[in-house]
């Protein structure tokens, strides 16, 4: 704790004595190293847990004992979430996007450690999920809370949040450009800023840290590839289309399983974990490569040793042939989606980044091996395996640039850049045709809870309803006379009078502009005109949970400038068009400064 206090004092001193750009660069380095450290720790922890389970395999004859490790991991994850995190797991990239749009980039502190713990338990014990999304969430929390600690502006907070995400992804794959592309395509959608240097330097810092600490067994990289042959372009286009269709299958199955566990299955969280864990056990019994992240299986496919994936399976019988491996890989494509979705929906923690790469590798292998065996043409299976990974990542995450640069970086060059572009683009177009938004953000976009490419809508989403409610009014009973109302308007700054009945219940309101002529008409007998006769009829009423977009629609369709708002039937005040416009100007200025 003493060291931490000294560290904060030193950074505050630098904040006061460095220029803004200098401090942002320093902050990018610190956030990058912190997020990189978290990524290295998580990847290493899961790697060594997996080594322990592999040792168990040899002793207890896989898969009969270790089948139940994912069940244990999911149960432990649920227990940690309930016991220590009070039910808030904070998992998923979608939650970070919601933090950006709904909470101005303020990410709760517990997310700094929650995802590291829960995903290590889930994936370390063999849950069929990935670590990259938890790493991204952890990095986002580190960047956001760093900015809050040193009282940085909204734009600086969003920038450092993105630095944390990009650094985590960069460290996980030893791929700095991939981290940058992921931040731009997924995290910073609809956010406008021009400070790129801190983002770049944070990913470089994290990547260097990862490269120094992680060994080759943990890093995900490939070296042996064949040169790109332009004659195969039609086949790469076909692979891209196939990738898009598989991606749509992936997203729709994921949504159905998520609905089943969260909406249909009204069980206790532990019962859901047991049920899901038992299904994972069955799937891993039939298809052992579904156990854990599955990166080792990808390496087998890309290194032309696919027979290794059959070890410990019923498919590994005497006299099996190449078609057996192809059939097995096709079944893996279908079941990996089930395994990942059930792992996450039943209470496990992780993401879809690694599973999409896994599915893509098996799909590329399946496609190219079938082409070769059918005799249409002899094509490089290793190339198609890796390019398939890019295809599914692009179609599932809606991040084609991330997919392109990831495969380019982990293969040590850009030899496959043309087929990667072809497959990524084709897959993205097909997936977007069937599903306009990715599975992680589809519902949030419908509810306008996250940013989109529409910058104006993004500004509006930052406005909170309490910011545009006015309580600047006085109240009278409905039998008050026009003369009394005139005195109220004359002797106060209020231009709204709320009319209540004798029980204090809201009946309506009167605006000064609407009764101005009556007040100035001295020929009227003002004592004979009551407030009840002058009440402005409510064209619209709102509940306190109404969205800003609903409010804007009402203002657009009518000429009213005030809308009464109620909470549980009790009058709370008025939503003001003037306050709405003011709030918009403030949020616009906030995002541009």
UniProtKB/TrEMBL annotation:
Protein name: Chloride channel protein
Membrane topology annotation: Multi-pass membrane protein
Domain of life, source organism: Bacteria
Transmembrane segments: 21-42, 62-81, 158-177, 183-209, 230-250, 270-291, 325-347, 353-374, 386-410, 416-434
UniProt keyword Transmembrane, yes or no: yes
Primary location group: membrane
Organism: Pseudopedobacter beijingensis
Domain (CBS): residue spans on this chain: 469-526
InterPro entries from the UniProt entry: CBS_dom, CBS_dom_sf, Cl-channel_core, ClC, ClC-type_chloride_channel
Keyword annotations: CBS domain, Chloride, Chloride channel, Ion channel, Ion transport, Membrane, Transmembrane, Transmembrane helix, Transport
Pfam families assigned to the protein according to its UniProt record, in alphabetical order: CBS (PF00571), Voltage_CLC (PF00654)
Signal peptide as annotated in the record: none
Intracellular or extracellular location(s): Membrane
């Amino acid at each position: 704790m003493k060291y931490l206090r000294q560290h904060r004092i030193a950074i505050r001193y630098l904040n006061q004595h460095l220029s803004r750009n200098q401090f942002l660069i320093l902050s990018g380095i610190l956030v990058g190293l912190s997020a990189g450290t978290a990524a290295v720790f998580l990847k290493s922890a899961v790697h060594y847990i997996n080594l322990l389970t592999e040792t168990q395999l040899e002793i207890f004859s896989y898969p009969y004992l270790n089948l139940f490790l994912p069940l244990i991991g999911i149960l432990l994850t649920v227990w940690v979430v309930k016991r220590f995190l009070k039910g808030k797991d904070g998992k998923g990239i979608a939650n970070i996007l919601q933090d950006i749009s709904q909470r101005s980039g303020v990410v709760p502190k517990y997310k700094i450690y929650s995802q590291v713990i829960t995903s290590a338990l889930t994936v370390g014990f063999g849950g069929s999920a990935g670590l990259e999304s938890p790493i991204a969430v952890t990095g986002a929390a580190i960047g956001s809370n760093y900015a809050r600690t040193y009282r940085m502006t909204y734009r600086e907070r969003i920038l450092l949040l993105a630095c944390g995400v990009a650094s985590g992804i960069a460290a996980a794959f030893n791929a700095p450009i991939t981290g940058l592309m992921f931040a731009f395509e997924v995290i910073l959608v609809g956010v406008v800023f021009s400070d790129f240097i801190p983002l770049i330097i944070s990913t470089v810092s994290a990547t260097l840290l990862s490269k120094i600490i992680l060994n080759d067994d943990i890093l995900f990289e490939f070296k042996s590839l064949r040169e790109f042959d332009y004659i195969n372009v039609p086949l790469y286009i076909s692979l891209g289309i196939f990738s898009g269709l598989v991606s749509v299958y992936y997203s729709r199955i994921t949504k159905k399983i998520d609905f089943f566990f969260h909406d249909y299955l009204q069980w206790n969280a532990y019962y859901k974990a047991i049920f899901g864990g038992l299904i994972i056990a069955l799937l891993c019994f039939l298809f052992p490569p579904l156990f854990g992240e599955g990166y080792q299986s990808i390496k087998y496919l890309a290194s032309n040793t696919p027979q290794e994936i059959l070890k410990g399976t019923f498919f590994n019988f005497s006299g099996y042939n190449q078609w057996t491996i192809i059939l097995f890989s096709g079944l893996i494509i279908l079941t990996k989606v089930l395994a990942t979705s059930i792992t996450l929906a039943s209470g496990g923690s992780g993401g879809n980044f690694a599973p999409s790469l896994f599915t893509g590798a098996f799909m590329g292998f399946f496609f190219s091996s079938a082409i070769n065996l059918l005799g249409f043409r002899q094509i490089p299976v290793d190339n198609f395996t890796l390019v398939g990974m890019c295809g599914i990542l692009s179609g599932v995450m809606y991040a084609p640039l991330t997919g392109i640069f990831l495969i380019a970086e982990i293969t040590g060059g850009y030899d496959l850049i043309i087929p990667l572009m072809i497959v990524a683009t084709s897959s993205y177009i097909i997936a977007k045709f069937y599903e306009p938004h990715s599975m992680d953000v589809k519902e949030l976009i419908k509810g306008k809870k996250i940013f989109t490419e529409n910058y104006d809508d993004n500004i509006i989403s930052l406005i909170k309803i309490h910011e545009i409610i006015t309580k600047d009014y006085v109240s009278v009973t409905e039998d008050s006379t026009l003369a009394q109302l005139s005195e109220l308007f004359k002797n106060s700054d209020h231009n709204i009078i709320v009319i209540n009945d004798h029980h204090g219940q809201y009946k309506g309101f009167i605006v000064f502009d609407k009764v101005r002529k009556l007040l100035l008409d001295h020929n009227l007998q003002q004592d004979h005109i009551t407030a009840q006769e002058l009440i402005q009829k409510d064209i619209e009423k709102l509940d306190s949970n109404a969205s800003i977009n609903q409010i804007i629609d009402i203002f657009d369709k009518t000429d009213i400038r005030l809308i009464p708002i109620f909470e549980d039937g009790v009058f709370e005040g008025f939503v003001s068009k003037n306050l709405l416009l003011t709030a918009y100007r403030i949020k616009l200025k906030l995002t541009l400064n």
